């Protein structure tokens, strides 16, 4: 789509002139242009590949080079993918850079031309958002942090109904997909008191059939946690 719809120029009028006065003496027009700085992407541990790629696409469309800072726990996987991208020769030299471990004084070298994105815990994100350099230089900062998601069983749903089976299926899936290590996972379920015992029994029965182990094996349905910190 970008190749078909976006111009080769660095200026792209987004719309037509918008009159700002009755006599049309003043008008405005939105113009998109590339930023002259870099985009620093600090990413979460649970999406070491896809989480990076979803940020690279708009970064490169905006004409900016990207610096990827993956979470330490899964940095090795991110490094392997970055190496594949760089070795492919599909992106210009310097368009993709990788920093593993701490960022050192990297923030001190950023200014208003740059952008910072963060995906991870709300606590860390709030600390980064308040970084003196970001505030002093008005550096664009975007944060994607924790979410609190729940699944609610309605009061009129009983165990023999298909809605009950769907509830159990979805809760079990959220508990086992990525071993529960995703920001959109259900963190709590809300069940009418009269159905607590039935829900508990149904969940135990379904979870008993989940095989835990090496996710490369066909019969395995849940892998290990990414680190001891996630236990």
TrEMBL record:
Gene3D superfamilies: Aldehyde Dehydrogenase, Chain A, domain 1 (3.40.605.10), Aldehyde Dehydrogenase, Chain A, domain 2 (3.40.309.10). Keywords: Oxidoreductase. Pfam families: Aldedh (PF00171). The keyword Oxidoreductase applies. It is an enzyme of class 1 (oxidoreductase). Signal peptide: none annotated. Residues 37-230 form the Aldehyde dehydrogenase domain. The keyword Oxidoreductase applies. Its EC number is 1.2.1.77. SUPFAM superfamilies: ALDH-like. InterPro entries: Ald_DH/histidinol_DH, Ald_DH_C, Ald_DH_N, Aldehyde_DH_dom. GO terms for molecular function: oxidoreductase activity, acting on the aldehyde or oxo group of donors, NAD or NADP as acceptor. It comes from the Bacteria. This is 3,4-dehydroadipyl-CoA semialdehyde dehydrogenase. It comes from Serratia marcescens. The gene is boxD_2.
């Amino acid at each position: 789509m970008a190749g078909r719809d976006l111009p080769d120029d660095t200026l792209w009028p987004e719309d037509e002139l918008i009159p700002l006065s009755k006599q049309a003496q003043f008008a405005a027009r939105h113009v998109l242009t590339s930023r002259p700085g870099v985009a620093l992407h600090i990413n979460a541990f649970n999406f070491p590949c896809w989480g990076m790629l979803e940020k690279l696409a708009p970064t490169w469309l905006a004409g900016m080079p990207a610096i990827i800072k993956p979470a330490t726990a899964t940095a090795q996987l991110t490094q392997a993918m970055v190496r594949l991208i760089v070795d492919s020769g599909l992106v210009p030299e310097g368009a993709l850079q990788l920093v593993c471990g701490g960022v050192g004084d990297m923030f001190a070298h950023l200014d208003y031309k740059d952008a910072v994105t963060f995906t991870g815990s709300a606590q860390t994100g709030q600390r980064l958002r308040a970084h003196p350099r970001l505030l002093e230089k008005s550096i664009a900062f975007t944060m994607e942090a924790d979410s609190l998601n729940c699944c609610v069983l309605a009061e009129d749903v009983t165990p023999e109904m298909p809605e009950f089976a769907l509830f159990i299926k979805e809760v079990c899936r959220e508990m086992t997909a990525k071993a529960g290590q995703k920001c959109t996972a259900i963190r709590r379920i809300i069940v009418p008191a009269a159905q607590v015992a039935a829900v508990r029994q149904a969940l135990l029965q379904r979870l008993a059939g989940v095989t835990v182990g090496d996710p490369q094996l066909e019969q395995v349905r849940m892998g290990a946690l990414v680190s001891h910190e996630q236990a």
